[in-house]
Amino acid sequence: MSEFTPLEKSADLDQRHQSPEEDDRKRSSRTREQSLTGFNELLFSFKEHLKVKNYSPKSIESYGGHLPAFFDHLKAKGITDIKRVTKDVLTGYQLAQAEYRTKENKPYARDTISVKLRAVKRFFEYLEESGRLLVNPAEHIKEPKKETRLPRAVLTEDEARKILDGPNLSMLTGIRDRCVLEVLYSTGVRLEELTGLTIYDCDLQGGLLRVNKGKFAKDRVVPLGKHAVKFLKEYIARVRPHHTRKNKQLRTLFVSQRGAPLSPTAAEIIVRTHARKAGIKKKVTPHVFRHTFATELVRNGADITAVQKMLGHSDLSVTHIYTHVAGVDVKKTHSLSHPREKDKEQKEETTPDIQSIKGRYRHDQP
After folding, report:
1. 290 is catalytic
2. Would residue 283 show up in a list of annotated catalytic residues for this protein?
3. Active site residue 313
4. Among 55, 63, 126, 322, the one annotated catalytic
5. What are phi and psi of 352, to 5 degrees?
6. Among 133, 178, 179, 185, which Cα is nearest to 277's?
7. pTM greater than 0.85
8. Is residue 214 within 8 Å of 190, Cβ to Cβ?
9. Marked catalytic residue, from 49, 215, 240, 274
10. What span, in angstroms and rounded, lies between the C-alpha atoms of 240 and 248?
11. 75 included as an active-site residue
């Protein structure tokens, strides 16, 4: 008696008579599926690693969003094992990003290429740190030089004042909105930093604000101006308790009327609404207040390194942009600040006799 039914025999015969090309295709398909699974597992563990390292959700989303394209590049090159990635492979990927063209035949912007390469660099740093690789093949990768772009919009002092004076202070939401605007203008914090503040981050007596987990997961302390302190006191004493009466455990500083944490979108709407009501034609966002904050400090003679610390910049060259925006006269600053420029008597004593010098040179000529 046969061990197989006619149907099973037919399937067995089909398998035996498959061509080598079909076998290769199936093996290739299985390999691709395995590599996809392996890459996805590495991506998941990498994102978990970034969470532990206190990277912002925005950074994690950015890195996680750019790596699948890199994995596709590897698979197109027949690389299914991350250990087979070499310096030459990564150089090829870097070149591919520089040569890429969109449907409109436009290249990637420098910042886009930088973010894509940074994602790959951080990924291989993680693989080396976690012991999955002995050598990091991405160490040589250098990001394109950043373009120096001046802020598109900066408010004048008069424009800022008009926006700040806009909210109706007879209403609870008006006091909250004024408080939001004052804190943005007084501290230059980023939008996500503003909405991430808690009631424990305000030192109203000392006039200080603690910014936790800013960009690159860095904490810093920034001064609060007297107007910001005044409205924070009013907001914390009168407005916030009313909005959080049904959610007293909430520790977020700025909240909605329903007692929920104020979202970045809601905070941006507050800024845009009051800018529009004030008749400002510029596109005003929370980041415009940050640019205005830095520009006014530099224009009024603030030390550039102090501005850097308040803004939370890791690179001083980024802060230097505001010297161009503010139109700082470097020569005038040198004349007013350098001790030798202040010594008028010494300057008079060392004034050279030009006529004497000219005469001496004339005599020396053959």
Report:
1. yes
2. no
3. yes
4. 322
5. -70, 150
6. 178
7. no
8. yes
9. 215
10. 10
11. no
Residues of the chain with pLDDT under 50: 1-2, 7-11, 13, 15, 26-35, 347, 357, 363-366
Amino acid letter, residue 68:
P
Q: Cα dihedral angle (314, 316, 318, 320), rounded to 10 degrees?
A: 160
Q: Tell me, what amino acid is at 362?
A: R
Amino acid at 313: H
- 274 annotated active-site: no
What one-character DSSP code corresponds to residue 145? Answer: P
- 118, 287, 299, 320: the catalytic one is 287
Q: What is the DSSP letter of 255?
A: B
Question: What's the burial of 196, exposed, middle or buried (CB within 10 Å: 0-12/13-18/19+)?
Answer: buried
Model confidence over 9-47: pLDDT tens digits?
444 545 455 555 555 554 444 444 444 567 889 999 999
* Active-site residue (options: 49, 122, 176, 190): 190
Task: For residue 320, give both structure tokens.
Answer: 């230097």
Which uninterrupted H or E stretch holds 211? strand 208-211
List the structure tokens of 103: 């449907």
Strands 202-203 and 208-211: antiparallel
The SS3 of residue 223 is: strand
- List the alpha helices (DSSP H) in the chain: 6-16, 20-52, 57-76, 87-99, 110-129, 157-164, 172-187, 191-195, 226-234, 240-243, 264-277, 286-299, 304-311, 316-319, 321-325, 330-337, 339-342, 344-349, 354-364
30 in catalytic set: no
CB contact at 8 A, 178 and 233: no
AA letter at 113: I
What is d(CA 268, CA 279) in angstroms, rounded to the nearest whole number?
Answer: 17
